[in-house]
């Protein structure tokens, strides 16, 4: 069969009713929220594409696993199941549970990052960089240049580390001042872009040459494995599980938010091979998260997490997941909408600077566009541009090259009909783009301002 889309590898067993406000009601709601889609009430949202973090639909087996929750304060059997699952899938010796990914980032940064240290990575992620900077470190972007060009469709692995940039940094600041390199698989703020297996191996070899740890941000590692299977020579006939196992053989550890490729609503972990790092992490997790056998998660959550990690490796599941994102991206391309290409693994990213060329970056075009899409349709998206980038230590805005709006697809939640509605909403917004105004802050938090900042239109 030659369908235009990949049919769902599941059937619906439960539904949640949706409602859509009138346009007048939506205008009042976004104004009350300070033109920040994060501050909208979920009951005021029709289709929620804010994030794929914790917004997934769990399977019947995961729901059954909730009933198997062992809520012992220490030594829960669900913890041992989760630990064994991570060790089998990724191959790491040690696992420290956390309530979500940023809990793992906090542990790693507190243990390894010090004032005067540098942490290279393939483009920053908001919470990751915040933890590094709060501990006195300096993030350095060593991603390939093409990652910053939204329409470079001919680059299949835009998440790759630029080895020359990386080695140049090592020689400049000294390997002893680089506690680890953080490799995102995939790279969220580049548009959900993957890293090739060849590049992962080269980064690992170069790092170990200088005695530097390689730590993955493996939040969406299954999506990365799918792109390797589809785009990299020699992997077409390998299973997703086999590709994943090889990927992690080129890492010394990883932080994980289970709320994405774990297909659950909460949970995460820090994994590693190094015994000393493990001992420090287990001591610190008690302070911030909980016992080393639950780390802020309930037993039932750990059981659902371990089941979800296994389900995510299913080749049919991940094909549908990534191809559903591509379906929306292709619809927008057909409608003449400027997006990041190639289409990524978890979201479609609108290029707000090309969408709204009349709004300077200092007036937050991506933030304005996300608000306007909500007003148009009740669809909630999110800004990934200057607001997310924040300010440096001197208080100056970063002004990243990519000023994006993210349309993030939750796993196993929406139908193709929902995505058709989203595409139409974005296209309708594009047709009245010249009417959209820039924004200014009315409240700016000192850290991670995109979560709770408030704005108003510039008249």
TrEMBL record:
Keyword tags: Lyase, Pyridoxal phosphate
Record carries keyword Ion transport: no
Q: Which domain of life is it from?
A: Bacteria
Pfam families named among the record's database cross-references: Beta_elim_lyase
Its Enzyme Commission number(s) read: 4.1.99.2
Q: Which SUPFAM superfamilies match?
A: PLP-dependent transferases
**Which cofactors, if any, are listed as required?**
pyridoxal 5'-phosphate
Report a single Gene Ontology molecular function: tyrosine phenol-lyase activity
Q: What residue stretches are annotated with the Aromatic amino acid beta-eliminating lyase/threonine aldolase domain?
A: 48-424
Task: Specify whether tRNA-binding is a keyword of the entry.
Answer: no
The GO annotation for biological process reads: tyrosine metabolic process
Q: Which reaction does it catalyse?
A: L-tyrosine + H2O = phenol + pyruvate + NH4(+)
Record-linked InterPro entries: ArAA_b-elim_lyase/Thr_aldolase (IPR001597), Beta-eliminating_lyase (IPR011166), PyrdxlP-dep_Trfase (IPR015424), PyrdxlP-dep_Trfase_major (IPR015421), PyrdxlP-dep_Trfase_small (IPR015422), Tryptophanase_CS (IPR018176), Tyr_phenol_ly (IPR013441)
Q: Give the N6-(pyridoxal phosphate)lysine positions (modified residues).
A: 260
**Assembly and interaction partners:** Homotetramer.
Report the family membership: Belongs to the beta-eliminating lyase family.
Cited NCBIfam families: PRK13238.1, tyr_phenol_ly
**This protein is called what?**
Tyrosine phenol-lyase
State the encoding gene: tpl
């Amino acid at each position: 069969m030659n369908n235009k889309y990949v049919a769902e590898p599941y059937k619906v067993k439960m539904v949640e009713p949706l409602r859509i406000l009138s346009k007048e009601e939506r205008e009042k709601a976004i104004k009350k929220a300070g033109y920040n889609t994060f501050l909208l009430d979920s009951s005021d949202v029709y289709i929620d594409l804010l994030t794929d973090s914790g917004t997934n639909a769990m399977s019947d087996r995961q729901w059954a696993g909730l009933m198997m929750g062992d809520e012992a304060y220490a030594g829960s059997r669900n913890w041992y199941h989760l630990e064994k699952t991570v060790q089998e899938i990724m191959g790491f010796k040690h696992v420290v549970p956390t309530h979500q990914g940023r809990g793992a980032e906090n542990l790693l940064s507190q243990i390894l990052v010090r004032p005067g240290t540098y942490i290279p990575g393939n483009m920053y992620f908001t919470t990751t960089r915040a933890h590094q900077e709060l501990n006195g470190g300096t993030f350095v972007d060593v991603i390939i240049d093409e990652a910053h060009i939204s329409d470079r469709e001919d680059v299949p692995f835009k998440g790759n580390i630029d080895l020359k940039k990386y080695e140049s940094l090592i020689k400049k600041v000294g390997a002893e001042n680089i506690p680890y390199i953080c490799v995102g698989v995939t790279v969220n703020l580049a548009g959900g872009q993957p890293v090739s297996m060849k590049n992962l191996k080269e980064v690992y070899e170069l790092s170990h040459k200088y005695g530097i740890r390689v730590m993955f941000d493996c939040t969406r590692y299954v999506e990365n494995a799918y792109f390797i299977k589809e785009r990299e020579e020699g992997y077409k006939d390998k299973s997703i599980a086999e590709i994943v196992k090889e990927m992690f053989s080129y890492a010394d550890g990883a932080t994980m938010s289970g709320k994405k490729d774990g297909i659950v609503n909460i949970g995460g972990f820090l994994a590693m091979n190094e015994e000393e790092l493990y001992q420090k992490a287990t001591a610190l997790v008690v302070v911030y998260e909980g016992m080393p056998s639950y780390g802020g998660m309930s037993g039932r959550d750990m059981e659902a997490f371990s089941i979800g990690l296994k389900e995510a490796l299913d080749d049919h599941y991940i094909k549908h997941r990534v191809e559903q994102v591509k379906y929306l991206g292709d619809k927008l391309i057909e409608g003449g909408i400027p997006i990041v290409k190639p289409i990524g693994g978890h979201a479609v990213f609108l290029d707000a600077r090309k969408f709204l060329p009349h709004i300077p970056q200092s007036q937050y075009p991506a933030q304005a566009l996300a608000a306007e899409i909500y007003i148009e349709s009740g669809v909630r998206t999110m800004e990934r541009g200057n607001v997310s980038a924040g300010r440096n230590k001197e208080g100056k805005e970063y002004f990243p090259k990519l000023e994006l709006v993210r349309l993030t697809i939750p796993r196993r939640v929406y139908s193709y009909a929902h995505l058709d509605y989203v595409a139409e909403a974005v296209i309708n917004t594009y047709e009245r783009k010249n009417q959209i105004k820039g924004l200014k802050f009315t409240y700016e938090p000192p850290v991670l301002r995109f979560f709770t900042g408030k704005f108003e239109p510039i008249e």
